[in-house]
Specification:
alpha+beta; 3 helices
């Protein structure tokens, strides 16, 4: 499965930033060993249901050390028997784009 998610603390630093809280979450995600990709808005991970949900939970707990309230946005693509979809989906998209005439 692929899980795209964003975790945000309810409070920010004096400048309105959430950098330290996000860094704590991304460290948990990267340390998990699951394939992952972080962009400015979301992080995507790939794995089995239980391991993905555990990483999401652990990342939320890491952010909760910075704020008493945490928001989670999550989208999952549940497709049993598939792996490598983090890159395979993009490869298929690129192939489809190449077929489109200008």
């Amino acid at each position: 499965m692929l899980v795209a998610f964003s975790i945000t603390p309810s409070t920010s630093d004096a400048e309105g930033g959430v950098r330290d809280a996000v860094a704590a979450a991304v460290k948990v995600i990267r340390d998990s060993g699951l394939p992952n990709r972080t962009d400015p808005m979301f992080t995507t991970i790939e794995g089995e249901w239980d391991e993905c949900m555990q990483v999401v939970k652990d990342a939320c707990e890491a952010v909760s050390r910075f704020a008493p309230r945490v928001a989670l946005i999550l989208k999952a693509d549940i497709r049993p028997g598939r792996s490598g979809e983090m890159t395979a989906k993009l490869t298929r998209l690129d192939a489809a784009l190449e077929k489109i005439e200008p």
